[in-house]
Specification:
CATH class: Mainly Beta
Strand order of the largest sheet: 5-11-10-7-8
Largest sheet: 5 strands, mixed
Shape: globular
Order of helices and strands: HHEHEEEEEEEEEEEEEEEE
Radius of gyration: 24 Å
Distance between the termini: 79 Å
Number of helices: 3
Helix content: 10-25%
Structural class: mainly beta
CATH architecture: Sandwich
CATH topology: Immunoglobulin-like
Strand content: 35-45%
């Protein structure tokens, strides 16, 4: 029995096969060409807040522990104390899966490293202790309150951050130790390289706010409109 087929598609099936195959190869974030932002941040060579932190640490009674390994204290790199991130101005926010690999807020040489850690909401952060003494990591910040208790070198404890916001982290034993965890609603953030350059790729086009965070505070914030398929340049000075 013959089945009659009508229309252009019945005579020319190959273009439709190619179209279907090309749709399967499109990125998972949709049909629109993605946008991006890049730029450079410039900060003073004289890092006052980091110098103050090191000075406070040198005055504590635990300072002798720093010299047991013989390793000099490493200054903070720009990538450890600066973050650039985007916030959507849309009313609703998309859901994103947190990374399987846990980022770390390290405790080393009686300092938290990095000073600023950006994470996606829902991410679990590990807090390893790599010092030859006990630390006690805690926070009273509204997005996430926790107290990990005291634990020694070679141990780590973990916290999941389910609410967006700024989480200030301290050590109950060493009062000068602090760090900031920025819990963000989307994965469109970057830490600059040590030359100040940064890039945020694969961003859906639309209206955003772009923010530069440095040390313990938000330094600059401005509106940003990303056009489809284009990369916008945004520079920051501290």
């Amino acid at each position: 029995m013959l089945i009659a087929r009508s229309g252009w598609a019945s005579l020319h099936p190959r273009p439709f096969i190619l179209l279907a195959a090309s749709l399967l190869l499109l990125p998972e974030y949709g049909l629109h060409a993605q946008s991006g932002v890049r730029g450079k941040v410039v900060v003073p060579a004289n890092d006052e807040f980091a110098e103050e932190l090191l000075r406070e640490r040198s005055l504590t009674r635990y300072e002798m522990h720093l010299h047991t390994s013989g390793d000099p204290v490493q200054p903070y790199r720009l990538s450890e104390k600066a973050v650039i991130y985007l916030e959507s101005t849309a009313a609703a926010s998309a859901a994103y899966d947190p990374p399987a690999l846990h980022p770390q807020l390290d405790q080393s040489q009686m300092l938290f490293r990095p000073l600023v850690l950006p994470v996606l909401r829902g991410t679990t952060v590990d807090f390893p202790n790599n010092d030859d003494l006990f630390h006690n990591v805690f926070s009273y910040s509204q997005p996430k309150e926790f107290d990990l208790g005291r634990y020694p070198r070679g141990h780590r404890r973990s916290v999941r951050f389910d609410r967006a916001g700024v989480v200030n982290v301290y050590c109950d034993i060493h009062s000068y130790m602090y760090a900031t965890i920025l819990v963000l609603e989307n994965p469109y953030f970057a830490v600059p390289g040590n030359d100040g350059g940064y890039t945020i790729d694969h961003v859906p086009p639309g209206a955003y706010r772009i923010t530069f965070w440095y040390g313990r505070k938000k330094v600059s914030e401005r509106p940003l409109l990303l056009e489809e398929g284009k990369t916008t340049v945004v520079n920051f000075d501290y």
